[in-house]
Amino acid sequence: MKDFPGTPGTLTGLGLRILQCIFAASAITAMATTSSFFDFTAFCYLIASMGLQVVWSFGLALVDAYALVKKDVLNHSFLISLFVVGDWVTAILSLAAASATAGIIVLLTHDLKGNHCLGDCQQYQVSVVLAFLSWITIATSSLIMLWLVAAG
């Protein structure tokens, strides 16, 4: 297997994992600090999906940091296959949660004229933007992992 930027055990791989974790945790924080996020299932789904993203990304960031300390690039086929499956599952869940939440926010702000937001519309929107940023970073990692499997 080749040593692409973003490969597990490289500095860019660690950077991607840290960004995923930060964006997902920020999306959770922005959504959970609103007064009525629990009124909408999509908002709860966003928190659950981003929570899974935080756990997955933090775990892989620790693996990347360990590999960097040991100066070892993690390119074992079994390990890469595990990363591919985990990244693709979390990427799909993150995209679905961010899209569902964005749809509800469009409904609340434009179709219902913001009457149901109770002043939390901006926090909902910030949470969705952060969720999409998290998805962009996990999608990048997913494509890199798939590239590694194809190159292997």
TrEMBL record:
One annotated Gene Ontology cellular component of this protein: plasma membrane
Entry membrane topology: Multi-pass membrane protein
Ranges for domain Casparian strip membrane protein: 7-136
Compartment(s) where it occurs, according to its Swiss-Prot or TrEMBL record: Cell membrane
Keyword Kinase found: no
UniProt entry tagged with the keyword Transmembrane helix: yes
Keywords of the record: Cell membrane, Membrane, Transmembrane, Transmembrane helix
Main location: membrane
InterPro entries: CASP_dom, CASPL-5
Superkingdom as given in the UniProt entry: Eukaryota
Entry's transmembrane regions: 12-31, 43-68, 88-108, 128-150
Pfam families the UniProt entry points to: CASP_dom
Family stated for the protein in its record: Belongs to the Casparian strip membrane proteins (CASP) family.
Binding partners and assembly: Homodimer and heterodimers.
Name of the protein: CASP-like protein
